Amino acid sequence: MSDTTTIRINRSTHDELRQLAKGRHQTVADTVSRAIRLLHQDDIGRDLAVPLTDEESSWLDADAG
Prior knowledge:
Elements: H1 11-23, H2 28-49, H3 54-61
């Protein structure tokens, strides 16, 4: 078993987390890991949605030859 720790969450959040895990046929730990990964992906998507700066556009348009 991997190294673990305890986090404190309120009862209603814990109940909802258990239901999500049960619906996905996963452990609570796997569901939390998945949620963290999705939050990271959401952050990346938000970063990618920001328009490029002029410097970034120039760099991308530069001749690679």
